[in-house]
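Q: I have 147 residues here and want to know how they pack in 3D. Can you give me a structure?
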Amino acid sequence: QALKYQSIIDAFLDLHKDLCALELSTEEWMAILQVSEWLKLFWIATTEMSQTKTKLPDNINITIKSGLLAAHQKLSEYYYWFDQSPFYTWAAVLDPRIMYKGLKEEYAGDIGLTKYLEEMKDQLQKYYEDFYANNMEPLLRTNSTST
């Protein structure tokens, strides 16, 4: 999303010279563009692969087959961690590209996943209230009296 708003970000930083240390260089913008293109290709590949439920052909090149199996194993490891910690689901819920609504639509056909998503949403709310909401109040009071 940063690429979409590059000119706006740059204009904002031009107006706020106190933030110039945060300004991205041309090389940094190019790196963001390159990573963005890689991620887009990865997204396309994973989307296509996730729709394929068939067995690999018997005549597939052994190098390709080994690579695909290794990639599948690595993804399985990530899914294991996804199941072990709520932070992965919370990150997806908070990610503006995915969000709660996107997960809810994706999980619509699976009662178990829908229930899991609702539990994770409730847990995220509780975590926020326990660790952040109450801690923010003194900061808000301090900031409002100093302005």
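Q: Anything worth noting?
A: The first helix runs from residue 6 to 15. Helices lie at 6-15, 26-50, 62-84, 86-94, 99-106, 111-146.
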